[in-house]
Write a structure and sequence with these properties.
heterodimer, A: 462 residues, mainly alpha, Arc Repressor Mutant, subunit A, 3-stranded antiparallel β-sheet, two-stranded antiparallel ribbon, 17 helices, 57% helix, 6% strand, B: 457 residues, alpha+beta, 3 domains, 4-stranded antiparallel β-sheet, 19 helices, 10% strand, globular
């Protein structure tokens, strides 16, 4: 049984565990419960109340003596925690107890807590620290501690722990140097009575119990060590009290009771197994047991799971279209870098270099035509008279002649004189006389032109 | 193969494979494998389902039964050589003109190869099948290094190519390796004829050029040159019973079986409305039972198929298609954390499958008895077998193959986990006792596979 109140809900992290608040309180993270969870919770509450009623029946004077709210039982356990956490060594007042419960996250109304504390005081669970009237400090009576813990344990284990305790006490009684036959006999009978009670309860559950009851029974009684313990007890009785027929008979009766109990446990487990696999009833064990197996089980233990599982995967579907698509999505990778192909010239995207070259060619052609016009078909012309007409003409002629003279493809040489000619009557009042010579014409036989060109060329280079 | 000629085989099979009469079948008892030869035939087909192939040296009656049962669901047994050329094995191909339609049911798509394995298999295919006019299977041998280098030259990542060459494609059976030389695998022999016809049409688009670029040192012959003579005998289709008149119901049953067997997971009921008809459902169950399979309704209302329980027990007994101890250990950890603990805590209402509680690698490796490398290796095998799936967040969840478990296998798996959780309780004792009793009482007469123990995944 968990120590959280029944109304607490599984945590958001899926573990269902409680989380601690910064102030030390304990709260359950909110999670929407499903209908199944609610039913399970209600069933658990009902089962707990029924267990407590049976547990308290020997002590109660009437059927209404047991609480109807499981949280009130948990409140007593929380009071134990308050005393353990508090520093006071001389008892606590009701106010200190209320404050301690609040720090533990108990959110019950103060009236309910006050009434419960008064009740625990009246019943002797809380007794005054000093035997004086009207003193307000209390401590817990140890019997109350045992009752609170037993109330929690009896719902968790269904009372099986008492059976284990009885077996242990019987063994202890037998292991003393001089065992008391009367005491041993009483213990043996107590063990047999307990075993029969559990066996009959299991018999009822097998006959008419619900699946949840059977699973609960299987979880509580699945201790195969009982048989070994009972057999050991019987052997000890035989060793210690050989010839003591009453004790030997009690030992035999205990073995028979254990056999009956074991048969009922197996019947309950068999019924659980019959429907457990189909329903995936993993709650036949506690989550902690699975968790422990996941953490600590060895490879050999884990490998026992699924030994009969067979691979059952369909084959891969080969799609020719997808195959070709995969091939075409990958292209051979070249080890050398290759220039991308030149894009073709289009009207929308003219080549700027070709345009510039065409413009240069047109300008060169215009210059050549202009200078050829000045030559008038001759091989040589004096440019000075043409230059003296205007400054614009001078600039055009000099620039064109210099450009063509510098172009190795053009057959023109400009001979620009170094001396300055000044004439105030002309638009261009001063200039250097210049001559233009064409070098690609046929050389006359008298050789004048060739010598002249050679001379002009030397002059130009110099 | 022993004994009988093809004609005799043919005639025997014709007597066994009769067209199903749905009206009569609906009145029959539930599908069971009744005769011993039928059971043996079903076991042959189940072995092929589990590991991709089965030994061909089986009694003729068993082969007849297997062939007849396969023919009822548009399948045909094909006899080929195993990867070591030491024996003949059977694979399950498709009848002429039959092929699965992966796009027929949107709720259960077939498993397709990813891009890189597709490319790698295309290169393997180009190496093994250089001439379109030749028979593609078994084809020529090819070297692993040759395919690896060609794929990398094509631009594929080397690690992805290595994973495809060493794991993905061999697991699917599309290629097999013996040392460093490979060849087309048994799954390639089982491809439908329609797929081979389509591949022949696009043969010139296979990456032959990538293989031609392979550098060869002086005096070193290419694989294609030195392996032309050692090609094993070609595949041989076992004769199947003559095709009788196929009615509309037979077509529906075959389509349903093909869809269920090819799908990765359960098929939605809305995709197979014909199974709502009791007669057609019974006919489907009977057709599946002949193949050692059962029709299974999942908790979420879908249809799937799985091994018949007795067939699964026989396969487990001969260790065919079972898992290694490491794989079973990792599967146990996943089932504990994804199913057992959530159900014990009341946080899980589903069955064996479901992605609500994914398990991380860190959670698995919290068990110090298993190394992370061993867990990762086991997870690869379990994923390939369909027993583990991954979520988009990277967690591991029980895979769709768990939905294919029959009632007996489901119960056995639950019992295994209960024993693991409390190994010394009465419950574990009773489970062990019951299993011992069952094992002693049920001595089945299934012939065992020749290669018990070597067919582990």
């Amino acid at each position: 049984m968990q120590d959280d109140p029944p109304s607490s809900e599984p945590g958001d992290d899926g573990t269902g565990e409680l989380t601690a608040e910064p102030d030390g309180g304990v709260t359950a993270p909110a999670e929407q419960l499903s209908l199944m969870d609610v039913q399970h919770e209600q069933l658990a509450v009902t089962e707990r109340l029924a267990t407590w009623r049976a547990f308290a029946a020997p002590l109660a004077t009437n059927s209404g003596a047991v609480v109807e709210d499981p949280e009130l039982v948990q409140l007593a356990v929380n009071i134990l925690a308050v005393y353990a956490d508090h520093q006071s060594r001389s008892g606590l007042t009701f106010a200190q107890l209320r404050e301690g419960l609040r720090r533990l996250g108990i959110r019950r109304p103060s009236g309910v807590i006050e009434a419960r504390l008064e009740h625990l005081h009246r019943m002797g669970f809380l007794e005054p620290y000093l035997p004086k009237l009207h003193q307000g400090r209390y401590i817990v009576r140890p019997a109350g501690l045992a009752g609170a813990l037993a109330a929690a344990r009896v719902t968790e284990r269904g009372g099986v722990d008492e059976l284990i305790l009885l077996l242990d006490r019987t063994r202890s009684a037998l292991q003393t140097r001089h065992p008391d036959p009367g005491r041993v006999l009483a213990h043996l009978n107590s063990c047999r009575h307990a075993l029969m009670v559990f066996a009959l309860d299991l018999h009822r559950r097998v006959a008419a119990g619900t699946a949840a009851e059977l699973i609960e029974a299987g979880r509580q009684h699945d201790h195969s060590s009982f048989t070994r313990q009972v057999v050991e007890l019987n052997e000890m009785v035989t060793d210690k009290f050989r010839g003591h027929y009453e004790l030997e008979e009690a030992g035999t009766a205990l073995i028979e009771a254990e056999q009956f109990y074991r048969s009922q446990v197996r019947a309950a487990i068999g019924k659980v197994l019959a429907q457990g696999g189909a329903g995936l009833n993993f709650d036949v064990l506690t989550p902690a047991e699975y968790e422990a197996a996941a953490l600590t089980a060895g490879v050999d233990q884990l490998a026992e799971v699924g030994a009969s599982l067979i691979a059952d995967a369909p084959g891969a579907y080969v799609d020719p279209d997808a195959l070709i698509e995969a091939i075409e999505s990958y292209q051979p990778r070249s080890r050398t870098r290759v220039r991308p192909p030149e894009s073709g010239a289009t009207l929308d995207d003219p080549d700027p270099l070709a345009t510039a070259e065409a413009a240069n060619e047109a300008a060169r052609r215009h210059r050549r035509l202009g200078l050829e016009a000045l030559l008038v078909g001759g091989q040589e012309v004096d440019l000075t008279p043409h230059m003296q007409r205007s400054w614009d003409a001078t600039v055009h002629i000099v620039v064109d002649a210099l450009a063509l003279d510098a172009d190795p493809r053009e057959p023109f040489v400009l001979d620009l004189s170094e001396w300055l000619m000044i004439d105030p009557t002309t638009p261009v009042t001063y200039l250097h006389p210049a001559r233009l010579i064409r070098t690609d014409l046929v050389v006359p036989e008298d050789g004048f032109a060739a010598d002249d060109v050679q001379q002009l060329g030397d002059t130009h280079d110099g | 193969m022993t004994g009988k000629s093809d004609e005799e085989f043919h005639a025997l099979g014709a007597r066994q494979a009769q067209p199903a009469d749905p009206d009569k079948l609906a009145e029959d008892p539930p599908a069971v494998v009744q005769s011993s030869s039928a059971a043996a035939g079903a076991l042959i087909l189940a072995r092929i389902r589990a590991v991709g192939y089965a030994p061909a040296t089986m009694p003729t009656d068993a082969l007849l039964s297997a062939s007849a049962a396969a023919a009822l669901v548009d399948r045909q047994l094909i006899e080929i050589s195993d990867r070591a050329d030491t024996r003949r094995v059977l694979v399950l191909g498709w009848a002429d003109g039959a092929a699965p339609d992966p796009d027929q049911h949107s709720s259960a798509p077939a498993w397709r190869l990813p891009a890189v394995p597709h490319l790698v298999w295309a290169v393997c295919l180009a190496a093994a099948w250089p001439h379109a006019a030749a028979e593609p299977y078994p084809g020529r041998l090819f070297r692993r290094e040759q395919v690896l280098r060609a794929c990398i030259d094509l631009g594929a990542h080397d690690r992805a190519v290595i994973a495809a060459l060493d794991r993905t494609l061999p697991r699917t059976g599309l290629i097999t390796f013996s040392g460093s030389s490979g060849r087309l695998g048994p799954a390639a022999a089982a491809l439908p004829t329609a797929v081979w016809s389509a591949l022949r049409r696009v043969h010139d688009r296979l990456p032959h050029a990538a293989l031609l670029n392979e550098p060869t040192s002086t005096g070193q012959a290419t694989v294609a040159e030195d392996t032309t003579t050692d090609a094993p005998p070609t595949a041989r289709r076992l004769p199947c019973p003559p095709a009788g008149p196929v009615g509309a119901n037979d077509t529906i049953v075959r389509a349903a079986v093909t869809a269920l067997e090819s799908a990765q997971g359960p098929v939605a009921r809305s995709d197979l409305p014909t199974l709502a008809d009791p007669a057609l459902r019974r006919a489907t169950e009977n057709a599946l039972a002949g193949c050692g399979r059962a029709l299974i309704s999942t908790p979420d209302g879908c249809w799937t198929t799985g091994y018949l329980d007795d067939i699964a027990q026989a396969l487990a007994a001969e260790q065919t298609g079972t898992f290694t101890s490491g794989q079973r250990a990792v599967l146990a950890l996943i089932l504990l954390r994804a199913v057992a603990i959530p159900r014990a805590q009341g946080r899980h209402d589903g069955g064996w499958t479901g992605a609500d509680h994914p398990v991380t690698l860190d959670e698995l490796s919290a068990n110090r008895r298993l190394s992370r490398a061993a867990i990762a290796d086991a997870l690869r095998g379990l994923r390939a077998a369909g027993y583990v799936a991954t979520t988009s967040s990277g967690g591991y969840v029980p895979g769709p193959a768990l939905a294919r478990l029959g009632p007996g296998s489901r119960e056995a798996l639950w019992e295994d986990l209960v024993i693991l959780g409390r190994p010394n309780g009465y419950m574990a004792e009773k489970i062990r006792s019951r299993r011992r009793t069952l094992a002693a009482a049920t001595r089945n007469g299934y012939p065992s596979a020749e290669s018990a123990g070597e067919d582990q995944i």
